[in-house]
Structure formats: structure tokens, C-alpha cells
From TrEMBL:
Keyword annotations from UniProtKB, A to Z: Signal
UniProt name for this protein: DUF839 domain-containing protein
Pfam families per record: PhoX
InterPro entries: PhoX (IPR008557)
Signal peptide (residue range): 1-21
Organism encoding this protein: Thiothrix nivea (strain ATCC 35100 / DSM 5205 / JP2)
Keyword Signal on entry: yes
PROSITE patterns noted in UniProt: PROKAR_LIPOPROTEIN (PS51257)
Length: 622
């Protein structure tokens, strides 16, 4: 986090803390005056006993080597800050409590609080002299526990969601604790729908997401807005209390949260960045180029280039065209970029407020795989093909409000599956893209409208690399105003998943390799890519550390069996300490009967009380 400002006093304290304790090779005073040369993580074993499989824990050790040749070992530990059911920091309600547009707690039909059990993104931010944590509440598990309270007719499978702002206290030994907490109010930006992963901008704000599966409209469904029904019902009836009407075009937009030193916040949605089922967005070190992960099947890869660095309110969006050069080992491809359009938040928001699918497109169903003259067959975000044509004067609305469909119409690739986290390695000018599963639209499909991606199925997925370059042109020959344009995609050997026949514990992917990569974060100082899993193929999901120089892959955390690792953020230096932020959600979400001892251990935990926390024990990495 090189953009954070640290006082001279804090730097002096940090230098002293780094040198504390016994040194493996020489006196501790030598390390205190040296910069970090490298960080190496030991790989903790995958748990094999019920007691270890039923808890979130770390037993990894970080070996920090300094420029003077000395080194020191730092044992890592997992620290839970709070759970979604906890009342902390003066918050009158549980941390995971959901609210309507008037910031009134949402209650279920039995007058019980509706609490989100799925924390996701974290941004630990230093603002002036204060520390704050912005956290996502992704979605709700209503109907999952089988209790009578959730069997009421016309109740909801999804809820309008929210984010939390937690004030953080840092002790002299680096331990973090909760100082204050409040829910964030999204009523001024039309509410929030399924915020998944997120990131931090170079100017120290939080960049969120909206994964709007339930708000994707397929016009060829015989019931019209069938795929939007669940989401719009929840927004209209629960969030707006039938006092306002929700619009799907106000969702699937990247929100930005600015936290001020006094804990007040401002929230905007960046309509200029396009609309999709956004897992997250990551701004490059230039402060103007951003990449988005479009999570789902038949998704696309979007690049946004802002008009000005540090301002995401205006710019140009491009969609990637995949030109495959190999189908082996996750595949290889060259990338070119199709310009979709240029716009501002204000003008796209105005279009969104007035638009419907029917005002943007004419659409018909294909007949025997063909479309009428004047229509183009696309498959974008759906398994159903559509014959589309953009109505006169609606190209801008199509580009920004139906970005995936418009990308397909313009010849970009809409065959990516489960595109999740995005990270950047600035020194090597390399982008990392998590593809949680290589399947479905990424395999060879002869019936697809384009069939650009033709890879061998790897259900456990891969983390792709892409080289970033300047001086690039879009497919029309116009210059792209960025030095961070992805030009290819490929997979390093250690980052490709490996599917296996079920082992004795129930793993169907090699437990010593990453399965179903999801959250990813690159630490420039540690030269390490951190990866959090969201896998049903591993009984326990892990957080991994992959050193891009040594190519060593190390397991650094194991979550409760069945739980997903979320909220990944790495802070190299926060007042003399480093932190790996890490949450977990849907604890114990696995098929019972695989292992009686594990079932017994999981029966003792509260599966709905998810963790917000961090891996601690590291000194500042400078």
C-alpha cells in the first residue's frame, strides 16, 4: 500500500519493532536498519483430522530475509475481529443486519432480524490518523436452514445487501480490534445488490462491486422478466417497501466508497465503467486503467480507461477479443481490444434511469441457429442464444448498460466462465486474472455463435497471467491511452488446478494445488500473489501464497470445512505491521456423510456466524 502516508514517528516505531526478538543469523539490531530482501512462507499441511478441519487456522511461518543477510521467522496466526452475528463497536444491531432504504432493520415474517451470513471484500484503510475497515455483505442464506421462519410463502431467496464501516484500533503489538461500527447507507445510489469482491484504489478509497445475477434480463424467456423477478421483488417489496420501483439498470455497477478521517463517507456508482455481473474491479498503478471480473458463464473481460488519473467518473470501455494460440495447460491466447464507447457517470446514469431492454434492442429467438436478416446471434451471460440488433441512437446505452451483449455484437469474446479476482504486479507489468473453473463456454462448443475459446475442461480452474504494455491500438486502429493494456493470457504451471478422483477425505481436486481460485491480491513488497479459494472440490478451502520469483506455492490458511475464503487484502506496512485480511463464509457447507467425525465436529459450530478477520504475525514489509 505505497499510497498510504505514515508519520516519521510511526516509521521509527516500525523500524524498532522489525528488529525485536531473536534473529536467526545475527543480532536483531542489524535487521532493524535493513530493508526486506525477501519473504518466504512455509506451506502448512492440509488438515486431515476432524478437529483441524472444523476450524479456521494458520500454522504457516514467514521467513523474512533482510538486505544485510539476516533473517527472522514469524509464525502466522488467524485472528477473528468479529462475526456477522456479533454486536460490536457500539452497533445496536448485529454486524450482518440488513436494512431497507430508510435504514430500518429488515425483519423476517416472524419479526426476527435478517442477517447476512456472507462477508466478502475488505479494505483496511488508514485515513489521517485513523484506521477503518470497509467490508462487503455479499448475499443472504434465506431458506437454507430449513426452519419454519423461512418457509413462509412469498418470502425471498435473496435480500438487498450492504457494506459495513468498522473503526479499527491497532495495539502496540500490532493486534487489531474493533473501535466502532456502522452500516453504510446506499439509498442515495439506488441500493446495493450482491457486492462480491472489491479492491483499494491508488488514492485510498474502496472500490466495490455488484454481482447482479438475479437482475439479468433474458428477453426470450416466455414470462418476460423472469430472470429479474427474484431480485426486483426483493428490492421493491423489502428494500423500497413498495414506495419506489427498482430498475435493473441501476445495478451491476461498480460503487466507490470514500472514507473521511471522521468516519463519514461518500458513495458513488461509476456508470461510466460499464455494467456486468461484477466480481470486482482493480485499478492499475497509473490510476486510470481498470479491469473488471465478470462472474458467470458466457462472460467477458472489460477494460476501462479513465480520462484522468484518480477519477473514475469518465472514460472509455473496451472488451477483449481472445485469439487462441494453444489449448494445452489452461491455454494461451493473444488479446486485442474492441472499443465499446466513451461516457461519463452522469450521462450514463441518465440513460439508465430511462432505459428498458426494449428501448435498447430489438430481439428475436434464432431459428435452427440462424437469425433473420439484420440481426446478430449472440450468447452473452445466458445459455440461450439471442438474435439482437441495436435500435437507432441506442449504441451508447447498449455499450454501458448492456455491456456484455454489446461486446458480443461488436465481435469481442463472451465465453469466459467464472472470472473472479483481478490483481496486478507492477514491477513485471503483469495482470493476474482468476478463472475459477475452465468449463462450459470456455471449452470447444461447436454450436456457439463465435467459439473463440476452445480449452480442455479443468473444473478446478486456473489463475491466468497477462502481460501489460503501452502503445496499443484497439481493433479499429485507434490508440488506447494506457500503459497497462493486457496483450495476452497464459497460465503458469503452479497456478493451474488439477482435477482428481475423490480421495479418502472427499477432495476432487489435488489438495496441494489451488482449486477454484477466487479472491487474489498481489503484494509488491513480498513479490507474492495471494489466492483465496471458493471451491466445492476441496473439503477445506485454503489461502495460498505464490512467490513469483521462486515459483513456490505455499498454503498459509485453512478455513472451516465447506467455507469459502473471502475478503483478501494484503497490507505491506500499516504502522509497522503487515496484515493479510481474510474472511470466511458459509461454514460447514459440505455434503454430510463424507466423514462422520467431521460431521460431528461441524455440528458444534454455528454455520451462519461467518468470520471477518486477518492473518497476523508479520512485521512491516518495506
Amino acid at each position: 500500500m505505497k499510497y498510504l502516508k505514515i508519520s516519521s514517528v510511526a516509521l521509527a516505531v516500525a523500524a524498532a519493532l522489525v528488529g525485536c526478538g531473536d534473529d536467526n543469523n545475527s543480532s536483531s539490531s542489524s535487521s532493524s536498519s535493513s530493508s526486506v530482501k525477501s519473504v518466504e512462507f512455509s506451506s502448512m499441511p492440509a488438515p486431515t483430522t476432524a478437529d483441524k478441519m472444523a476450524v479456521t487456522h494458520s500454522s504457516s511461518v514467514a521467513k523474512v530475509t533482510y538486505s544485510d543477510g539476516t533473517s527472522k521467522d514469524y509464525p502466522l496466526t488467524y485472528n477473528k475481529l468479529f462475526g456477522v452475528k456479533d454486536k460490536v463497536g457500539g452497533n445496536a444491531n448485529a454486524a450482518g443486519q440488513l436494512y431497507n432504504y430508510k435504514m430500518e432493520p429488515i425483519m423476517d415474517p416472524y419479526n426476527q432480524p435478517v442477517i447476512a451470513e456472507t462477508p466478502d471484500a475488505n479494505s483496511l484503510l488508514k485515513v489521517g490518523g485513523n484506521l477503518f475497515l470497509v467490508s462487503h455483505l455479499e448475499y443472504d442464506w434465506l431458506l437454507s436452514d430449513g426452519s419454519d421462519a423461512y418457509k413462509v410463502a412469498n418470502w425471498y431467496t435473496r435480500m438487498p445487501m450492504s457494506m459495513l464501516l468498522t473503526g479499527i484500533t491497532q495495539a502496540t503489538d500490532g493486534k487489531l480490534s474493533v473501535k466502532s461500527q456502522k452500516p453504510l447507507d446506499f439509498s442515495g445510489v439506488d441500493g446495493l445488490w450482491i457486492p462480491c469482491f472489491g479492491s483499494q484504489t491508488p488514492w485510498n478509497t474502496h472500490l466495490g462491486s455488484e454481482e447482479d445475477y438475479d437482475l439479468q434480463y433474458n428477453p426470450l424467456n416466455t414470462s418476460g422478466y423472469a430472470t429479474t423477478t427474484a431480485g426486483l421483488k426483493a428490492l421493491n417489496e423489502v428494500y423500497y417497501k413498495n414506495e419506489k420501483t427498482a430498475n435493473p439498470y441501476n445495478h451491476g455497477i461498480i460503487p466507490e466508497v470514500t472514507v473521511k478521517e471522521d468516519g463519514s463517507t461518500t458513495i458513488v456508482k461509476h456508470y461510466a465503467m460499464g455494467r456486468g455481473t461484477w466480481e470486482m474491479s482493480k485499478v492499475m498503478p497509473d490510476g486510470k486503467t481498470a479491469y473488471m471480473g465478470d462472474d458467470g458463464t458466457h462472460g467477458f473481460m472489460l477494460m476501462f480507461v479513465a480520462d484522468k488519473a484518480g477519477d473514475l467518473s469518465a472514460g472509455t470501455i473496451y472488451a477483449a477479443k481472445w485469439t487462441q494460440t494453444s489449448a494445452d495447460a489452461g491455454g494461451k491466447a493473444n488479446l486485442t481490444w474492441v472499443k465499446l464507447g466513451s461516457g461519463t457517470d452522469a450521462d450514463i446514469k441518465a440513460l439508465a434511469d430511462a432505459a428498458t431492454f426494449e428501448t435498447i434492442f430489438d430481439a428475436v429467438a434464432p431459428t435452427a441457429g440462424t437469425c433473420p436478416t439484420g440481426y446478430t446471434r449472440v450468447r452473452a451471460g445466458s445459455t440461450a442464444d439471442e438474435c439482437l440488433t441495436v435500435k437507432a441512437g441506442q449504441d451508447k446505452a447498449a455499450a454501458f448498460l448492456e455491456s456484455r451483449r454489446y461486446a458480443a455484437l461488436k465481435g469481442a469474446t463472451t465465453e469466459f466462465t467464472k472470472m473472479e479476482g483481478i490483481a496486478v504486479n507492477d514491477k513485471d507489468k503483469r495482470l493476474y486474472v482468476a478463472i475459477s473453473a475452465i468449463r462450459d463456454s470456455m471449452t470447444d462448443g461447436a454450436d456457439e455463435p463465435a467459439n473463440d475459446i476452445k480449452l480442455k475442461k479443468v473444473s478446478s480452474g486456473a489463475t491466468y497471467s497477462a502481460d501489460l504494455k503501452g502503445g496499443q491500438k484497439d481493433t479499429s486502429g485507434a490508440a488506447i491511452n494506457s500503459e497497462y493494456v493486457a496483450t495476452n493470457m497464459y497460465v503458469e504451471a503452479a497456478l493451474l488446478g488439477e482435477d482428481i478422483a475423490a480421495d479418502a477425505l472427499g477432495n476432487t481436486a489435488n489438495p496441494d494445488k489451488v482449486a477454484n481460485t477466487d479472491n487474489i491480491f498481489f503484494s509488491e513488497k513480498m513479490r507474492t500473489l495471494f489466492i483465496g479459494e471458493d471451491s466445492g472440490m476441496h473439503v477445506n478451502n485454503f489461502v495460498w501464497a505464490y512467490n513469483v520469483d521462486t515459483k513456490k506455492l505455499s498454503r498459509v490458511l485453512s478455513a472451516v470445512a465447506g467455507a469459502e475464503n473471502t475478503g483478501l487484502q494484503v497490507v505491506d506496512d500499516m504502522n509497522g505491521y503487515a496484515y493479510i485480511m481474510s474472511n470466511s463464509q458459509h461454514h460447514g457447507d459440505w455434503s454430510t456423510g463424507k466423514n462422520a467425525e467431521v460431521d460431528k465436529a461441524l455440528a458444534t459450530i454455528d454455520k451462519f456466524d461467518a468470520n471477518i478477520g486477518y492473518i497476523g504475525g508479520l512485521p512491516a514489509i518495506k
